[in-house]
Amino acid sequence: MSKQSDTFIDRLVQRRALARWSRAARLADRLDLASLRQLRGDARQIRRELDRLLHIAEGRLTLPLIGKDTIDRPLGTDWAWRPELWSGPVVPAGIAAAQNRATMGDGTTLFHDCTVSELTLRQIRNTREADLAPFGLRMDVFRFDGSYLSVVVDLPEEAVRGLKLTHVIRLSAVVEVEKPLEIFARLNVKHGPNTEQIVAEVPLNGAGQAVEFDLAYTRLNEKRVEKAWVDLIFEGPQMNQVILRDLTLSRRPRAEI
Fold first, then answer.
1. pLDDT (tens digit per residue) in 2-37
2. Which of 189, 193, 176 is nearest to 133 (CA)?
3. Distance of alpha carbon 47 from alpha carbon 52, whole angstroms
4. Cα(88)–Cα(114) distance, rounded to whole angstroms?
5. How many CB atoms lie within 10 A of CB 121?
6. Nearest 5°: CA angle at 208, between 234 and 127?
7. Residue (of 162, 166, 164) closest to 257 by Cα position
8. Other CB atoms within 10 A of residue 103 CB
9. In this structure, how many other beta carbons lie within 10 angstroms of the beta carbon of residue 12?
10. Does residue 246 sit in helix, strand or coil?
11. Distance in angstroms (rounded) separating the CA atoms of residues 47 and 108
12. Nearest-angstrom CA–CA distance, 76 and 8
C-alpha cells in the first residue's frame, strides 16, 4: 500500500473518530450513567496520549529550537559552549527544597550551607523572540539562613585543551532578577596542586551580561592544566527569584599589542 493511500486512510479514520467524539460530547448530558462512565474512561485514556503528544510537540516546535547552537562568538574565538542545562532538557527538570550539591543535568551543581533549604530550582523553556538558548534556569529563594549560595558549572575538556596564558575566557549570560542583588562569577583553573581563581562581578544592566577573565594576570602553568569550572555566586539572595535565561562560555587569544 502506498504512502499516499496510508495518509488518506489515516485522515479518514481521524475524521470519523473526531465525528464520534463530537457526537458523544453533544449527547453526554442525556446518556445513562453506565454508558457515561465507560465513555469517560475512554476519553481519559485518549487525553493522556494527546497530552503526551502535545507536550513533546510544543517542546520541539517552540522557538528557539532544541539543539540550536547559536552562540555569540567574539572575533578570534577558538572555543564556545553552552552547558547542557541551557541547551537541552535535563532530568530532573526541577528540585524543591534543593539540598547542597544538588545537580541538574551534566556538570551543573548547586552549593549552599543552609540549615533548612527553601531553595527551588527549575529548568524552564525559553519562548521569547530574543532568546538564543532553548532553556533557562529559574531559582526561587525564600528564607535563606546560609552564608553562601552558588551555582557551579564544570567546563568540558575542550575548554582547557591547549589553554594558554594568552587566552581570555568570556562568560556571557542573560539574567533576570525579581529584586536587585549582587552576582559574582569566579573562574577556577586547576593546574597540578594549584588552582588559579579570577573573580568578576556580573553587571545586571542591559539585556545581556558578560565578564571576561584574562589569564595573563594569573600564574597558570600551561603544561599542567587539568580542569576548569565557573562559580556563579549570589549575594543576599533571600526572598528573590533569579532567572538565568542563557549562559555561554567562550575563549579567544588576547590581542597582541
1. 455 468 788 888 888 888 888 888 988 888 988 889
2. 176
3. 8
4. 29
5. 21
6. 95
7. 166
8. 16
9. 10
10. strand
11. 35
12. 54
